[in-house]
Amino acid sequence: MSAAAERIEIPAFPDLSRVPRVDEVGIYERAARFRTRSIKKEAKMDALKMVLSMIDLTTLEGQDTPGKVRQLCAKAMRLDTSMEDLPKVAAVCVYPTMVGVAREALGDSGINVASVATGFPSGMTDLDLKLDETRRAVVAGADEIDMVISRGAFLRGEYRRVFDEIVAVKEACGDAHLKVILETGELNTLDNVKRASVLAMYAGADFIKTSTGKIQPAATMEVTLVMLQAIRDFYRETGRMVGMKPAGGISKAKLAVHYLVMLRETLGQAWMTPEWFRFGASSLANDVLMQIAKQRSGAYQSPDYFSKD
Model-level pTM? Predict the structure, then answer.
Protein backbone atom coordinates (compact mmCIF):
# COMPACT_ATOMS: atom_id res chain seq x y z
CA MET A 1 0.00 0.00 0.00
CA SER A 2 1.03 3.62 -0.46
CA ALA A 3 2.45 5.95 2.14
CA ALA A 4 -1.10 7.19 2.71
CA ALA A 5 -1.81 3.89 4.46
CA GLU A 6 0.90 4.38 7.08
CA ARG A 7 -0.37 4.76 10.62
CA ILE A 8 -0.53 8.25 12.02
CA GLU A 9 -1.09 9.48 15.54
CA ILE A 10 -4.72 8.81 16.36
CA PRO A 11 -6.56 8.41 19.67
CA ALA A 12 -5.38 5.31 21.52
CA PHE A 13 -8.90 4.09 22.22
CA PRO A 14 -12.13 5.42 20.72
CA ASP A 15 -15.09 6.51 22.80
CA LEU A 16 -17.69 4.18 21.28
CA SER A 17 -20.48 5.91 23.19
CA ARG A 18 -20.02 8.83 20.77
CA VAL A 19 -20.53 6.70 17.65
CA PRO A 20 -23.85 7.79 16.12
CA ARG A 21 -26.58 5.18 15.77
CA VAL A 22 -27.25 3.73 12.33
CA ASP A 23 -30.33 4.90 10.42
CA GLU A 24 -31.45 1.37 9.50
CA VAL A 25 -34.37 2.48 7.35
CA GLY A 26 -32.10 4.80 5.39
CA ILE A 27 -29.43 2.10 4.99
CA TYR A 28 -31.89 -0.45 3.61
CA GLU A 29 -33.46 2.08 1.26
CA ARG A 30 -30.10 3.24 -0.06
CA ALA A 31 -28.78 -0.29 -0.51
CA ALA A 32 -31.93 -1.20 -2.43
CA ARG A 33 -31.32 1.70 -4.83
CA PHE A 34 -27.80 0.46 -5.56
CA ARG A 35 -29.26 -2.88 -6.66
CA THR A 36 -31.29 -1.14 -9.36
CA ARG A 37 -28.38 0.77 -10.91
CA SER A 38 -27.36 -0.13 -14.43
CA ILE A 39 -23.98 0.31 -16.09
CA LYS A 40 -23.69 1.57 -19.64
CA LYS A 41 -22.52 -1.12 -22.02
CA GLU A 42 -19.29 0.67 -22.89
CA ALA A 43 -18.36 0.93 -19.19
CA LYS A 44 -19.37 -2.59 -18.25
CA MET A 45 -16.21 -4.26 -19.53
CA ASP A 46 -14.03 -1.90 -17.48
CA ALA A 47 -16.14 -2.62 -14.39
CA LEU A 48 -15.85 -6.39 -14.89
CA LYS A 49 -12.07 -6.18 -15.26
CA MET A 50 -11.90 -4.02 -12.15
CA VAL A 51 -13.82 -6.67 -10.21
CA LEU A 52 -11.32 -9.31 -11.31
CA SER A 53 -8.40 -7.18 -10.18
CA MET A 54 -9.97 -6.81 -6.72
CA ILE A 55 -10.57 -10.50 -5.99
CA ASP A 56 -8.81 -12.38 -3.22
CA LEU A 57 -9.06 -15.83 -4.79
CA THR A 58 -9.70 -18.05 -1.79
CA THR A 59 -9.55 -21.64 -0.64
CA LEU A 60 -10.21 -22.24 3.05
CA GLU A 61 -11.29 -25.86 3.34
CA GLY A 62 -10.18 -28.71 5.56
CA GLN A 63 -9.45 -30.71 2.41
CA ASP A 64 -6.96 -28.16 1.02
CA THR A 65 -3.76 -29.75 -0.24
CA PRO A 66 -0.54 -28.30 -1.68
CA GLY A 67 -1.69 -29.43 -5.11
CA LYS A 68 -5.00 -27.63 -4.79
CA VAL A 69 -3.27 -24.44 -3.66
CA ARG A 70 -0.80 -24.60 -6.57
CA GLN A 71 -3.71 -25.04 -8.96
CA LEU A 72 -5.44 -22.01 -7.47
CA CYS A 73 -2.24 -19.96 -7.81
CA ALA A 74 -1.90 -21.00 -11.45
CA LYS A 75 -5.44 -19.77 -12.06
CA ALA A 76 -4.72 -16.53 -10.22
CA MET A 77 -1.80 -15.80 -12.54
CA ARG A 78 -3.70 -16.72 -15.72
CA LEU A 79 -7.45 -16.58 -15.26
CA ASP A 80 -8.25 -17.60 -18.82
CA THR A 81 -5.75 -18.61 -21.47
CA SER A 82 -8.06 -17.52 -24.30
CA MET A 83 -8.14 -13.87 -23.13
CA GLU A 84 -4.77 -12.13 -23.03
CA ASP A 85 -5.79 -8.75 -21.64
CA LEU A 86 -7.27 -9.80 -18.31
CA PRO A 87 -5.88 -8.40 -15.05
CA LYS A 88 -4.48 -10.65 -12.38
CA VAL A 89 -6.38 -11.06 -9.13
CA ALA A 90 -5.17 -9.11 -6.11
CA ALA A 91 -4.28 -12.01 -3.83
CA VAL A 92 -4.60 -15.70 -3.08
CA CYS A 93 -5.97 -16.36 0.41
CA VAL A 94 -5.12 -19.61 2.21
CA TYR A 95 -4.65 -21.12 5.65
CA PRO A 96 -1.32 -20.44 7.40
CA THR A 97 -0.03 -23.95 6.69
CA MET A 98 -0.37 -23.31 2.95
CA VAL A 99 1.30 -19.88 2.85
CA GLY A 100 4.71 -21.27 1.88
CA VAL A 101 3.18 -23.29 -0.95
CA ALA A 102 1.33 -20.24 -2.29
CA ARG A 103 4.38 -17.98 -1.93
CA GLU A 104 6.53 -20.36 -3.97
CA ALA A 105 3.83 -20.93 -6.60
CA LEU A 106 3.13 -17.20 -7.12
CA GLY A 107 6.81 -16.25 -7.24
CA ASP A 108 7.34 -12.73 -8.58
CA SER A 109 3.88 -12.55 -10.20
CA GLY A 110 2.94 -9.49 -8.14
CA ILE A 111 -0.04 -11.32 -6.63
CA ASN A 112 -0.12 -11.09 -2.85
CA VAL A 113 -0.38 -14.03 -0.48
CA ALA A 114 -3.07 -13.50 2.14
CA SER A 115 -3.47 -15.78 5.14
CA VAL A 116 -6.28 -16.10 7.63
CA ALA A 117 -5.03 -16.27 11.19
CA THR A 118 -5.86 -15.84 14.90
CA GLY A 119 -7.86 -19.04 15.22
CA PHE A 120 -9.93 -18.55 12.06
CA PRO A 121 -12.91 -18.75 11.82
CA SER A 122 -13.99 -18.70 15.49
CA GLY A 123 -11.12 -16.77 17.06
CA MET A 124 -11.57 -18.92 20.17
CA THR A 125 -7.91 -19.34 21.08
CA ASP A 126 -5.52 -17.64 23.48
CA LEU A 127 -3.88 -14.40 22.38
CA ASP A 128 -0.40 -15.96 22.52
CA LEU A 129 -1.50 -18.61 20.02
CA LYS A 130 -3.07 -15.95 17.79
CA LEU A 131 0.14 -13.94 17.75
CA ASP A 132 2.29 -17.01 17.12
CA GLU A 133 0.09 -18.06 14.19
CA THR A 134 0.28 -14.56 12.76
CA ARG A 135 4.06 -14.40 13.00
CA ARG A 136 4.46 -17.85 11.47
CA ALA A 137 2.29 -16.88 8.49
CA VAL A 138 4.32 -13.72 7.93
CA VAL A 139 7.64 -15.60 8.16
CA ALA A 140 6.30 -18.13 5.63
CA GLY A 141 5.66 -15.31 3.16
CA ALA A 142 2.23 -13.79 3.82
CA ASP A 143 1.83 -10.22 2.57
CA GLU A 144 -1.54 -9.83 4.26
CA ILE A 145 -3.12 -11.25 7.41
CA ASP A 146 -6.90 -11.66 7.75
CA MET A 147 -7.61 -11.85 11.49
CA VAL A 148 -10.93 -12.50 13.22
CA ILE A 149 -12.06 -10.48 16.21
CA SER A 150 -13.32 -12.10 19.42
CA ARG A 151 -17.03 -11.67 18.79
CA GLY A 152 -18.02 -13.02 22.19
CA ALA A 153 -15.87 -10.44 23.93
CA PHE A 154 -17.27 -7.68 21.73
CA LEU A 155 -20.88 -8.68 22.42
CA ARG A 156 -20.13 -8.76 26.17
CA GLY A 157 -18.97 -5.17 25.89
CA GLU A 158 -15.30 -6.02 26.40
CA TYR A 159 -14.25 -3.47 23.81
CA ARG A 160 -10.83 -2.79 25.33
CA ARG A 161 -9.94 -6.49 25.07
CA VAL A 162 -10.94 -6.59 21.40
CA PHE A 163 -9.04 -3.37 20.73
CA ASP A 164 -5.89 -4.58 22.48
CA GLU A 165 -5.94 -7.88 20.56
CA ILE A 166 -6.11 -6.04 17.24
CA VAL A 167 -3.25 -3.77 18.27
CA ALA A 168 -1.15 -6.80 19.27
CA VAL A 169 -1.88 -8.67 16.02
CA LYS A 170 -1.07 -5.54 14.01
CA GLU A 171 2.30 -5.42 15.74
CA ALA A 172 2.87 -9.12 15.05
CA CYS A 173 2.18 -8.52 11.34
CA GLY A 174 5.34 -6.48 10.92
CA ASP A 175 5.34 -5.25 7.32
CA ALA A 176 2.32 -7.37 6.36
CA HIS A 177 -1.02 -5.58 6.10
CA LEU A 178 -3.85 -6.43 8.46
CA LYS A 179 -7.46 -7.09 7.47
CA VAL A 180 -9.78 -7.30 10.48
CA ILE A 181 -12.77 -9.62 10.04
CA LEU A 182 -15.79 -8.53 12.06
CA GLU A 183 -17.98 -11.57 11.26
CA THR A 184 -20.95 -9.26 10.92
CA GLY A 185 -23.47 -12.11 10.82
CA GLU A 186 -22.75 -12.68 14.50
CA LEU A 187 -22.85 -9.03 15.57
CA ASN A 188 -26.67 -8.97 15.41
CA THR A 189 -27.22 -5.25 14.69
CA LEU A 190 -25.96 -2.61 12.29
CA ASP A 191 -25.09 -0.44 15.30
CA ASN A 192 -22.71 -3.18 16.46
CA VAL A 193 -21.24 -3.42 12.96
CA LYS A 194 -20.51 0.30 13.02
CA ARG A 195 -18.97 0.20 16.51
CA ALA A 196 -16.78 -2.78 15.60
CA SER A 197 -15.66 -1.01 12.42
CA VAL A 198 -14.64 2.09 14.37
CA LEU A 199 -12.86 0.00 17.01
CA ALA A 200 -10.88 -1.94 14.39
CA MET A 201 -9.81 1.17 12.48
CA TYR A 202 -8.61 2.99 15.59
CA ALA A 203 -6.68 -0.14 16.57
CA GLY A 204 -4.75 0.05 13.30
CA ALA A 205 -6.59 -2.11 10.77
CA ASP A 206 -5.44 -1.57 7.18
CA PHE A 207 -8.71 -3.12 5.97
CA ILE A 208 -11.99 -4.01 7.62
CA LYS A 209 -13.71 -7.14 6.34
CA THR A 210 -17.27 -8.33 6.74
CA SER A 211 -17.06 -12.06 7.18
CA THR A 212 -15.21 -15.34 7.30
CA GLY A 213 -17.61 -16.81 4.74
CA LYS A 214 -18.25 -19.68 7.16
CA ILE A 215 -21.59 -18.49 8.55
CA GLN A 216 -24.72 -16.87 7.14
CA PRO A 217 -25.48 -14.11 6.59
CA ALA A 218 -22.05 -13.19 5.28
CA ALA A 219 -21.51 -10.03 3.24
CA THR A 220 -24.63 -8.00 2.50
CA MET A 221 -24.94 -4.65 0.80
CA GLU A 222 -26.50 -3.14 3.93
CA VAL A 223 -23.65 -4.23 6.20
CA THR A 224 -21.06 -3.18 3.63
CA LEU A 225 -22.66 0.25 3.28
CA VAL A 226 -22.49 0.78 7.06
CA MET A 227 -18.81 -0.17 7.02
CA LEU A 228 -18.07 2.08 4.04
CA GLN A 229 -19.72 5.00 5.80
CA ALA A 230 -17.64 4.26 8.91
CA ILE A 231 -14.50 4.33 6.74
CA ARG A 232 -15.59 7.66 5.25
CA ASP A 233 -16.18 9.21 8.67
CA PHE A 234 -12.88 7.82 10.00
CA TYR A 235 -11.00 9.30 7.04
CA ARG A 236 -12.61 12.69 7.59
CA GLU A 237 -11.61 12.60 11.26
CA THR A 238 -8.07 11.21 10.98
CA GLY A 239 -6.94 11.64 7.37
CA ARG A 240 -6.07 7.92 7.19
CA MET A 241 -7.48 5.73 4.41
CA VAL A 242 -8.68 2.24 5.37
CA GLY A 243 -9.62 -0.47 2.88
CA MET A 244 -12.79 -2.55 2.71
CA LYS A 245 -13.33 -6.24 1.94
CA PRO A 246 -16.81 -7.75 1.67
CA ALA A 247 -16.47 -11.54 1.77
CA GLY A 248 -18.87 -14.43 1.48
CA GLY A 249 -21.96 -14.70 -0.69
CA ILE A 250 -20.78 -12.52 -3.57
CA SER A 251 -20.68 -15.00 -6.43
CA LYS A 252 -22.28 -13.09 -9.33
CA ALA A 253 -20.67 -10.41 -11.47
CA LYS A 254 -23.81 -8.25 -11.50
CA LEU A 255 -23.87 -8.07 -7.71
CA ALA A 256 -20.14 -7.29 -7.58
CA VAL A 257 -20.66 -4.38 -9.97
CA HIS A 258 -23.44 -3.07 -7.69
CA TYR A 259 -20.87 -3.10 -4.87
CA LEU A 260 -18.51 -1.02 -7.02
CA VAL A 261 -21.23 1.55 -7.64
CA MET A 262 -21.84 1.73 -3.89
CA LEU A 263 -18.11 2.08 -3.26
CA ARG A 264 -17.76 4.90 -5.79
CA GLU A 265 -20.71 6.87 -4.45
CA THR A 266 -19.78 6.42 -0.78
CA LEU A 267 -15.99 6.75 -0.73
CA GLY A 268 -15.11 8.15 -4.15
CA GLN A 269 -12.67 7.32 -6.91
CA ALA A 270 -9.61 7.06 -4.64
CA TRP A 271 -10.89 3.77 -3.19
CA MET A 272 -11.60 2.20 -6.61
CA THR A 273 -8.41 0.12 -6.69
CA PRO A 274 -7.27 -3.27 -5.31
CA GLU A 275 -5.13 -1.31 -2.88
CA TRP A 276 -8.28 -0.21 -1.04
CA PHE A 277 -11.08 -2.60 -1.99
CA ARG A 278 -11.23 -6.40 -2.27
CA PHE A 279 -13.79 -9.11 -2.80
CA GLY A 280 -13.30 -12.28 -0.76
CA ALA A 281 -14.52 -14.94 -3.14
CA SER A 282 -14.00 -18.44 -4.46
CA SER A 283 -16.52 -18.57 -7.31
CA LEU A 284 -16.96 -14.90 -8.31
CA ALA A 285 -14.06 -14.97 -10.79
CA ASN A 286 -15.73 -17.61 -12.98
CA ASP A 287 -18.97 -15.66 -13.28
CA VAL A 288 -17.04 -12.49 -14.16
CA LEU A 289 -15.14 -14.42 -16.84
CA MET A 290 -18.45 -15.67 -18.25
CA GLN A 291 -19.78 -12.12 -18.41
CA ILE A 292 -16.62 -10.86 -20.14
CA ALA A 293 -16.88 -13.66 -22.70
CA LYS A 294 -20.54 -12.72 -23.23
CA GLN A 295 -19.62 -9.07 -23.80
CA ARG A 296 -17.09 -10.07 -26.45
CA SER A 297 -18.86 -12.89 -28.25
CA GLY A 298 -22.51 -12.17 -27.61
CA ALA A 299 -23.04 -15.66 -26.20
CA TYR A 300 -22.57 -17.25 -22.81
CA GLN A 301 -19.94 -19.95 -22.32
CA SER A 302 -20.86 -22.99 -20.27
CA PRO A 303 -19.70 -22.71 -16.64
CA ASP A 304 -17.79 -25.96 -17.26
CA TYR A 305 -15.56 -24.03 -19.69
CA PHE A 306 -13.81 -22.36 -16.75
CA SER A 307 -11.69 -24.15 -14.15
CA LYS A 308 -13.29 -24.81 -10.79
CA ASP A 309 -10.21 -23.78 -8.80
Answer: 0.92
